[in-house]
Design brief:
985 residues; alpha/beta; GMP Synthetase, Chain A, domain 3; Non-ribosomal Peptide Synthetase Peptidyl Carrier Protein, Chain A; Rossmann fold; 43 strands; 20% strand
Amino acid sequence: MNTILHKLNEIVLKQGDAIALKERNRQLTFTELNNESNKVASYLIDNGLEKGGFVAIYLKRSIDTVISLLGIIKAGGVYVSLDPSHPNERNSYIIDDINTSFIITNTDAEQNLDSLQLDPSMNILQLENIYANKAVNLTLNINDNVEDPCYTIFTSGTTGKPKGTLIRQKGIMNLVDYMQKDWQVNDQDKILQFATYSFDASVLDTFLSLLTGSMLYLIDDEERMSESNFLNVVKSEGITIIPVLPTVFFNRIVNHLTEENSDLFASVKLVGVGGELLTGDLARKFKSFVGDQIRFFNLYGPTEITVMATAYEVPKDLSNDVYSVPIGKQLPGNKVYIVNEDGKQCKENEIGELWVASIGISLGYLHNEEKTKEVFIPNPFDANIYEGIVYKTGDLVKQLADGNIEFVSRKDTQVKIRGHRIEIAEIETKMNEVDGVNNAVVVVEKEGDDQILKAFFTSNERIEHTAIIETLKTDLPSYMLPTKLKQLEDIPFAPTGKVDRKALGKMEADRVSLVGSREIIAPRNEIEKDLIDVWKKVLKIDAVSVKDNLFDIGGHSLKVIEILAHVKQTYPALTIKDFFDLKTVENLAEKVINTSLNQDIQFNGEFTNLTEWPVMPIKEQVREVNKILVTGATGFLGSHIAQKLLEEGKEVFLLVRGENAEQRVSETMQKYFNCNTNPLITVISGDLTKKFLGLSKEDFTELANNIDAIIHSAADVRHFGNREHFEKVNVQGTKNIFELVNINADITFHHISTVGVVQDLLTEGKWNSVKDMSNIPEDLQLDSVYTDTKMKAEKWILDQAKVGKQVFVYRMGNLAGRYSDGHFQSNIDENAFYRMLKLMILVNKAPNVQWMVDFTPIDFAADVVVKSALTAEHTVRVYHVCHPDPIPFAQFVSILNELDLSIEMVETAFYEDYILSDSMSEEIKNLAVAQLDGDGASDTNAVFDSQQTMKLLKIQHLPKIEKEYIGKLIQYASEQQFIKLAVYA
């Protein structure tokens, strides 16, 4: 393989007088370029640059930049281009990271160097002084090798610090060889140089030109940032090849084209775009203007494999069904793999991460061995090609039927909004489909403790925000709708050519109503006025109608808590559930008016044991279990059940939602059990809410025939929300997973439920009428959508016993931290019991209530479920998994005081007034709302009875609920900074 310098030397000898470089007011021949770069190389060598040493270039994009980088390569060095327009902090960090003694600059840029606070010993090369030297002939001293590193590009790092990628000559030579042959580039071509030299796209256009003898035109910032100026340069300079334009800028160019000005591309024979997803609409629009006269490529490649790994030539007749233009097939010198979370190559149309093996693969990241080992890994598929290394790109793609690859999204663009994992690219896709929208970008904005979606878009016309929202609502759930919108003339892009999401994150946008235009009905009484004032304040909107649905104007569960914190003291009759049921100010005010505050039922001190209902005595012989499917395995309970099964030597299949299922399982295992994986685990990426769990029918059937039992632990366990959603997850999801049993009737089905079912039956006065029944009545309903859907799922499962299926139900109690060490779930701040505990510690008070407190340590609960699942003989179908010996609330407070927490028990009325008083912080009031709404300490006659469960399953070792255990719970909460307090048992 030829080297850069030997190839360049051939061109200088062949066509030295031809124009090599040109910019608006300057041009250089190949001979002049050779001479000037020789001077730079000679200076570096004379001043001690060693082979492989780094040299920084601190220049604006210009002919000087090309002279400098060639001089560095001739001297055996590695060039690192710094952009003076980048933040000083970034440039200073890069200079420190490469540990260079040399910076090349010129008079224009040198004045900015002072702000970098350079080491006084730094050797600063001013090009004007270098050019004044005599010409130097280095032809005979050229001693380069294709294995030599020649440049380093710094890309954004997840830590906030950029990371340097070290690239060798052979990657460049392979890339140029492909382009010269396939793109038919020759010495008559005029190539446009667009990208900044701190971005790897500059490598593509610069070396393509230098090593083919064509002319390189370096467009300046004024020509680069204006569509009309850019197109005028293309025409006036007779540009024939535009190797790569950022997708964002290309979008602007296409939207600027008309039938009248499309002749500006008359000289062009090839255009490439890359950097981000290219939409079919944009590609079709461009082809409609330029026809077949221009070859048009969608290019893809990470910096780490030398610019380009795949390419797709867009046909003139691109199907109207194509939204995301493919990124094509692998280029010569590259081998691509699409890999699922199991580390196996994906099937057709299966989404996975793109891995690339390449002749141009990087030597890794400078001074970052950990990150290098994370993404540059031994090739598990082809150990004998390209040094046996493959690069994990972090891009999610899929292979189409024709062999082309389609880009889907970045792995790291998944975010959580209100507890929902969403893909930003999905929202951007839907916005780009809105009539009139040219380009849309969505970013996440922190708003207090909330995260909201903020969307920016461009259009040739003025589009009302409400029109966009109304269109999006037909395809997207409410939590995926942008809270803020803003129309821009242009989407800003970074010097890398990609969307500048950081800049957009800092931009202000307009809050939008999710209900569109509607009649604003003003409050008609004092209660409505009070409620509307609070809604405006919490939702940060100017106008609220008494008939507005809270959840259509930006409300959600966290906002409900915040609203209640403001109104609970004035209107104690209102509950969290009311907001989900009644939804409007009008309805809530009506409830307040019609509610008598004197109807509270006083607790009489008599407790009711809620036993394992319905009473279903059986004699069931269950076959031996060795292979078990567990759902909800990344949750607190599901993960502990899975771990317990692994300890028993069982083979475990884990059903996990999302494209990164394997990673989520690994993270969960590491978090709870300090281990990454286990050979007995098989992770299945699936979705409970979909038919066949989102798998193919063949894979679904294969799974059914490969397992002995199912422990169904997945559910939406929030206490409030939309009924349709709870039905979809808790009821239909259960039916979907049970289809496995319908295929293989030998599967035993273990269904995880909640004691909240029997507690709500008692609260609603229905317990006594049903407690002796042997089934759950068809017409039985509960007010809470959560417990009602859990009860419906229980009934559906238990009814399957009538047709011979082996089914069991487990009602879980108050799941608390591990008995062994107090370790609790990661989202501790969302747990009602721990929030109650935090509130009592913050205010040093607790209500004097009659309550038998259940503590069910998570490891104890998992032991009970697994023991039952592995038990051969059963005499009942319903079990209660909770501690058989709950402790009085007063005893619990006494233990807290033994731990030096100084909590005073006070009368309930005083406690409620105290925690909602004006002197309390917003945090305390928010915690107080949930407490007073039934998620905290209150008088209750409910006792969860698990005596029969413990007896039948022969559970002998019960956890002791005493000072040592409670101390572990509080210590863990303190370590997680949920409770800012150090307590030791």
